[in-house]
Design goal:
single chain, 208 residues, mainly alpha, 75% helix
């Protein structure tokens, strides 16, 4: 708070001090109760440098933290259009903001849209999408992608890791028999001790 007060004073004396504004914004964003001030500062910085995507992302993050979710959603959508190379990162944040606003279908649709024709048979992409959906507890949609990822993946630890992830999702859905089968398959195959331990932990969570 002392440093924040000093930075506020510095900005009051020189409003175009972008270094002070960026430092103060970061401090406000990390301090509970000051998220709205962070958004205000980042908005001012973006107004000065609208082409800086990193600042626009920080502004979107601050709006999400301040529960101004529609503003965050609009900014994340704009970032996806402006920089498709980071669409997975931006989409994860977009979906989280949509879910927080109560639009779980919109969140699922945003994540599912990542599975474009050019990556529809890439098991690693499908598993990543499945994981993003699982983080928001969108388990039915997550299971669809994890199932396809497991089906497409070659044998080996990558596939086994996907099987464990699928088992966790199915556990949340109450599909006990399939969970048990997946975990036992991983345990019964050559696999790293870490993966076997994870599979055993999932098995222990089964009822009965």
């Amino acid at each position: 708070p002392v440093l924040m007060a000093e930075l506020e004073k510095r900005l009051a004396e020189k409003s175009d001090d972008t270094v002070a504004a960026e430092v103060l914004a970061a401090l406000c964003q990390a301090t509970p109760g000051f998220e709205a001030r962070a958004a205000e500062l980042y908005q001012q910085l973006v107004d000065r440098s609208p082409d800086q995507l990193a600042l626009r992302e920080l502004l979107a993050d601050s709006y999400a933290s301040a529960h101004e979710l529609q503003k965050a959603v609009d900014l994340y959508r704009g970032l996806i259009e402006a920089n498709p190379a980071k669409r997975f990162d931006y989409t994860g944040k977009l979906a989280a903001a949509l879910a927080a606003s109560g639009d779980r279908k919109g969140a699922a649709d945003a994540i599912n849209a990542l599975v474009t024709a050019d990556v529809a048979t890439d098991p690693q992409v499908l598993a990543r999408v499945g994981g993003m959906l699982a983080e928001l507890q969108l388990y039915e949609e997550s299971a669809v992608h994890y199932r396809k990822a497991v089906e497409l993946a070659k044998d080996g630890e990558l596939k086994q890791a996907m099987q464990v992830s699928l088992a966790r999702v199915l556990l949340a859905l109450g599909h006990s028999e399939e969970v048990a089968a997946l975990c036992r398959e991983v345990i019964g195959q050559p696999a790293s001790e870490a993966l076997k331990t994870q599979a055993e932990e999932v098995l222990r969570q089964l009822p009965g």
